[in-house]
Amino acid sequence: MEIIILSTMFSEISWRPAFNDNDFSGWLVTTAYLAAVISCFVISQKTRMRQAALKTSVPAMEPGLRETTAPRPGGDEVLNALVRSPEFSRIWSYLALLLLFLGINQQLDLQTLLIQSGRALAEAEGWYPYRRLVQRTFFGLFAVGTLLLVSLAAWRCRVFLNRHRLVTLGLAILIGFVLMRAADFNHVWLKTIQVVHEDFWKNFLELLGLGLIAAGARRASKISS
To answer: What is the pTM of this model?
Structure first.
């Protein structure tokens, strides 16, 4: 019986792993994600190489400096940069991986797979009439979880975010966009998010966020050179 239910569920899922946003605007946004990923990866590598170069300038009289986990208040700028470099390099790398995932999802539309799977499961289990309640509950949990995770990450990376304001603004726009799209997919109809239905505004918000992140990464790359 369970095999029959699963077979029925899978037969109702039309999503396939392919280029599902295969038009000009879709590829424009995908290219923007790729450019932002490359920018973040480049600055990550530059920061790592800068740290390796700065290690040679650490005075031999301070052997414990390389093991410290925080910059010295009022300390030498070069030595403080050495302390922060590993942390910043990792953040740039994580940011590149996050944007890479979002860029891939731009074409794969994994949220479509999730929606179709949920609809098929609802029909198979008999709670399809209550799908709107389930969708709103799912969105509420997703939004709360996302905001908690973002708040924790922002606190842990507060020095990085404070130093790279363009990246911070770009990330805030992207996170807001993701939450609005999630509300759209889950039919949480709020007047403040109905504008997302317009492709122009959807692409504008995404491109704006990515552009700010890429600009912030290039600016940091120039400073590190």
So the answer is: 0.80
